[in-house]
Structure formats: C-alpha cells, structure tokens
Amino acid sequence: MKMPSDQTMSSKQAVPSDQTMPSDHLPTLIGERVELRWLVESDVPSLFEIFSDTEVARYWSSPAYDELSQAQELFEEIRKYFADGSLYQWGVALRDTGKVVGTCTLASISTQNRRAEIGFALGHSHWKKGYMMEALPLLVDFAFQELDLHRLEGDVDPRNLASIRALERLGFSSEGLLRERWIVNGEVCDTAFYGLLRREWRRSPASDA
Predict the structure, then answer these.
(1) pTM of structure
(2) Of the residues 18, 69, 107, 196, which has the maximum number of CB atoms within 10 A of its CB?
C-alpha cells in the first residue's frame, strides 16, 4: 500500500498490557493528542474528505475519490476484512474533537507467518503537526505486543519522501526496490520496500518516544 503521511515526531503512550482484541470491533489505542479508534458509519464523510484529496492520494495505490459512495464502499470493505481477519484499519481521530483526520492500517495479515503490511494516510490540512508520528508507534506496539507479529512491511513510492522518513524514524530498514510494481491512473510506479522486525522495534528510538 502506498502511503502519504505526516512528517514530524511527537510523544505517545504505550498500549496497555492488558489490551485484548474485541470480537466485533478494533480496540481504541490512546495517544496524547490522537487516538486510533474503530470507524463508524458517521465517519464516512471524513474518509471521503481524506481520500478525495489529490495531495493525499498522490502516492496511494488507487486514484483520489470523486464520489462519496467510494468512501462508503471503503467503510464496508474495512468491516468485511476485519471480520475475516485479513485487515485492521483504524481511524486516526483528534482527541479534542473526535474527528477522524486519517487512518492507520495493518493489511495482508498472515497469522502463519506473523507478519502484516503497515499503511497510513493523513488529511492534507493536518500534515506537519506530528499527528501521524504519534499514531504510528501505537499501531506498531499493538502489532508486536498484542497481535504477537514478528515482522511488519512497508510498500512506499520511492518519491514519497515524507512516508519514507516516517518509516525510517520507526526503525524500518530499506530492503530493496521493486520496479514498476504499480500502475495508477496510467502511471507506472516503483515500490521501495521496507521491513521492521519485532526485536528491532524494542530498541527503536520511536518506541521510547
């Protein structure tokens, strides 16, 4: 998944050690200014606002939305994939307003291989405020501590320097270039592939932020 992101670092709170996965929704992960929470139907307009922005979708794996129905379809897919255990997608909400301004995702979840792909998007008007670098450590903590994953992967357009910096600040390592992997709106794009192992996260500066 190609990933636009915020660009700066801020503090975060650790996921409680007794956090468990509810059977019918994702748990809420609490940070200082943001929280990762279960998306509800009333968040569909916020999803449209995020993914209809061409700046946000510039390096995404699909074009920017042009109809609200596409955001509704995304919402329904998120519910469907949560039910089958293949994808967990949280809304990134501002704690002071409750408004969803982005999403954080664990996709292509493999329980056999204990790995998943990380994805994230943030509304353009909220870039450069440190929100995503507060949210992402919560996501990574949950993946390694609560889901007991061994490895996380990132698929990012090599031109998307903001997302690359975010992955590197989390401790992800570059693992190679996959040439001409995506075709979006007729544009052929490469993938820069990144990986983070659980043992590396334990000593990552971001994990102690």
Answers:
(1) 0.85
(2) 196
